């Protein structure tokens, strides 16, 4: 039984549990893969997907029936993913990825001195010129787009791209030393 997204949205809005289940069945896998692409942790991605659908159900009465269900779900997933990245301080530089989940540290395979690498990363970020450091922080820690950063700093998108590329080159070089 393949229902139109508008019928699913209307059913969810009206509290129909079957429609909610069908909505979940239709969209959960795609949203999970979308979130997993950014957090790269299956448990965290599943938690975020569950939170998306939990919030959909809790806020169902406020849904607009003419709205786009898929766009709503993916927007919710994006916002929850950005919040999770901030909360868990997920940082990615080259092939090195660190994050703290539930008070436990997870490290990439073969990387036994993550504290030292993180210390070196922080030092390298601290050495950046102010503009590059600002762009790095906005892009990595606040998940801002190039356009958002350009608007905030009153520069062109190309300037943001150039500064970010220089930043990543500098950080990679600094982390490769020793």
UniProtKB/TrEMBL annotation:
UniProt cross-references to InterPro entries, sorted A to Z: RNA_pol_sigma-70-like, RNA_pol_sigma-70_dom, RNA_pol_sigma70_r2, RNA_pol_sigma70_r4_t2, RNA_pol_sigma_r2, RNA_pol_sigma_r3/r4-like, WH-like_DNA-bd_sf
Source superkingdom: Bacteria
UniProt entry tagged with the keyword Transcription: yes
Pfam families: Sigma70_r2, Sigma70_r4_2
Family in the record: Belongs to the sigma-70 factor family. ECF subfamily.
Keywords: DNA-directed RNA polymerase, Sigma factor, Transcription, Transcription regulation
Name of the protein this chain belongs to: DNA-directed RNA polymerase sigma-70 factor
GO molecular function: DNA binding; sigma factor activity
UniProt source species: Alistipes communis
CC per GO annotation: DNA-directed RNA polymerase complex
Protein's GO biological process: DNA-templated transcription initiation
């Amino acid at each position: 039984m393949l229902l139109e997204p508008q019928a699913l949205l209307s059913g969810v809005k009206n509290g129909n549990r079957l429609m909610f289940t069908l909505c979940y069945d239709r969209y959960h896998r795609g949203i999970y893969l979308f979130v997993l692409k950014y957090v790269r942790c299956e448990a965290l991605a599943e938690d975020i997907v569950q939170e998306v659908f939990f919030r959909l159900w809790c806020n169902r009465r406020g849904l607009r029936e003419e709205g786009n269900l898929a766009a709503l779900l993916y927007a919710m997933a994006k916002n929850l993913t950005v919040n999770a990245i901030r909360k868990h301080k997920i940082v990615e530089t080259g092939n090195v990825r660190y994050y703290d989940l539930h008070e436990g540290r997870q490290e990439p395979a073969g990387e036994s001195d993550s504290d030292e690498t993180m210390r070196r990363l922080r030092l390298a970020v601290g050495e950046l010129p102010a503009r590059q450091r600002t762009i790095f922080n906005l892009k990595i820690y606040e998940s801002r787009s190039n356009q958002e950063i350009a608007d905030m700093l009153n520069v062109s998108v190309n300037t943001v791209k150039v500064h970010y590329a220089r930043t990543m080159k500098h950080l990679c070089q600094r982390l490769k030393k020793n």
